[in-house]
UniProtKB/TrEMBL annotation:
Organism: Psychrobacillus psychrotolerans
TM region positions: 6-23
Taxonomic path: Bacteria, Bacillati, Bacillota, Bacilli, Bacillales
Top-level taxonomic group: Bacteria
Protein name: Ribosomal protein L7/L12 C-terminal domain-containing protein
Sorted UniProt keywords: Membrane, Transmembrane, Transmembrane helix
Length: 88
């Protein structure tokens, strides 16, 4: 009975510790995203839209997303949402 309580307590402490680590990492990620937005040069939306439309015609959806990620520094989600907006 005593060993069971030790195991349960250890498991709870492990989960609590991992939760704190995850929370800390998500906070750091948020701070880095905000800093990245500040450092990234502002781009004219019309130019970006024209670029996306051109790349969609020549490269297709997947390679356009890849291009935006590699050459424009966009996240996967942002690039995919932008491409989905103009793919029709």
């Amino acid at each position: 009975m005593n060993i069971e309580w030790v195991l349960i307590t250890s498991f709870i402490l492990l989960i609590l510790g991992l939760s704190l680590i995850i929370f800390g990492q998500s906070k750091k990620i948020h701070v880095l995203k905000v800093e990245n937005q500040k450092l990234r040069p502002k781009e004219n939306n019309d130019e970006l839209i024209a670029l996306v439309r051109e790349k969609l015609k020549t490269l297709g959806v997947v390679k356009t997303v890849k291009y935006l990620r590699e050459h424009r520094g966009m996240s996967m989600i942002d690039a995919k949402q932008l491409v989905d907006t103009f793919k029709n």
